[in-house]
Amino acid sequence: MRILLTNDDGINAEGLRVLERIAARLSDDVWVAAPEGEQSGASRSLTLAEPLRVRRLDERRVAILGTPTDCVMLAVTQLIPDPAPDLVLSGVNRGMNVAEDITMSGTVAGAIEGMALGIPSIALSQMMRVYRDDERALYETAETFAPGVIQRLVDAGWPKDVVMNVNFPAQPPDEVTAVEVTRQGFRDVRTRYAERRKDLRGRDYYWLGFRAEPSEPPDGTDLRAVYDGRISITPVHIDLTHMPTVHALKGMLGGAPPKLRAPS
Q1: Phi-psi bin for 152: left (phi > 0), alpha (psi -120 to 50), beta?
Q2: Is the pLDDT of residue 251 over 90?
Q3: Is the pTM of this model over 0.85?
């Protein structure tokens, strides 16, 4: 099995080294195409206004001055000789990618680009209780369980338009006892915020961040699973259509375009 690895934390990230060790337990045909620097929150962005610079580290490892989507697209279409990869693994992200985070995640986006190119793809993330530079993620949890989870998923297979989003809880391996297949959750609290500061010239600037404020997610969601110490596996896809609203609006907006009503 030929495996392509990427991430959004950058080529020098500890999580990528963990992912290389995970992949090495599954195959001896492993390739790496990762961003030169951190691309957290890049989602599915492409680099369109600047050239993509490629730095070759060895025969099967490259760093690309671009986004995770750039990396997967370029690796599959230009950098890896035939045959194409059989599997794309993106991660292991430093911090979980669950709930509404999925739509912003560069880690998930790397897997989505693999799926868009016809390759089964899995995103992997390691939850942290506190997201700070002086806090280390418990990557040993992901490293312990990811090979078995990936192998089981590959054996089972999944639809071509689906990406598997795997999140490991912030617990040491000996405290993790269960895997749960979940649905995408949504937080009932607002964790993102902007802090206003002043530079040395007295001008305002803003720094975006996240509050470490837990929500109360329902059972069956990715949030609930990792909060409770279980490995979460969520099949996700990029069809964002809300079908109940489609059906509700068809009776109001089908046919000729509506005209503005005159004021009463």
Answers
A1: alpha
A2: no
A3: yes
Residue 214 scores a pLDDT above 90: no
Residue 26 in tokens: 């599954």
Using the predicted structure, report yes or no on whether residue 213 has a pLDDT greater than 80. Answer: no
For the chain, give the number of residues: 264
> In this predicted structure, what is the pLDDT of residue 131?
75
The structure tokens listed for 45 are 């962005």
